[in-house]
């Protein structure tokens, strides 16, 4: 169990190290229209099954999107939504949502 935990921590840190956080919030807002259907127009979901994105930490948002895109985090809907995102798209979306309150 300890080995699995250490491996999980190592994967998380390597993922975070590969994510650039210098996103453009304005570009992220423009890209966020497809996210709004589930996560709300301002990053606040009306459905308790889908998380709020507004105010989440930028590193968490970027890492999560990157893992969905790359198939390292499993969710059929999110994988489909993230599969065509570029690293710049991810950084921009993370910058946008992390700046919302």
Any overview of this molecule?
By secondary structure, the protein is mostly helical. The protein has a single domain (2-99), classed as Cytochrome Bc1 Complex, Chain D, domain 2. The protein is built from 6 helices and no strands. Helix 2 crosses helix 6 (87-99). The chain starts with a helix and ends with a helix. The mean pLDDT is 88.
Features:
single chain, 101 residues, mainly alpha, Cytochrome Bc1 Complex, Chain D, domain 2, 6 helices, 0% strand
Superfamily at the CATH H level? Cytochrome c-like domain
Rounded mean pLDDT score: 88
The stretches of 5 or more residues where confidence is low (pLDDT under 50) are none
Strand content: under 5%
H/E topology pattern:
HHHHHH
Shape: globular
CATH 2nd-level architecture: Orthogonal Bundle
Looking at CATH, which topology would you report?
Answer: Cytochrome Bc1 Complex, Chain D, domain 2
Structural class based on helices, strands and sheet pairing = mainly alpha
- Discrete helix count: 6
The top level CATH class name: Mainly Alpha
**How is the main sheet built?**
none
Radius of gyration over C-alpha positions, nearest whole angstrom: 14 Å
The total number of structural domains is 1
Task: State the end-to-end CA separation.
Answer: 37 Å
Q: Please give the share of residues in helix.
A: 55-70%
**Tally of DSSP β-strands:** 0
């Amino acid at each position: 169990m300890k080995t699995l935990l250490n491996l999980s921590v190592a994967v998380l840190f390597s993922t975070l190290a590969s994510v650039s956080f210098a996103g453009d919030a304005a570009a992220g807002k423009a890209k966020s229209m497809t996210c709004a259907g589930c996560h709300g127009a301002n990053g606040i979901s009306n459905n308790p099954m889908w998380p709020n994105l507004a105010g989440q930490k930028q590193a968490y948002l970027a890492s999560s999107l990157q893992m969905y895109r790359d198939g390292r985090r499993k969710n059929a809907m999110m994988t489909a939504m993230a599969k065509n995102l570029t690293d710049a798209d991810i950084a921009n979306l993370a910058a946008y949502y992390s700046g919302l309150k």
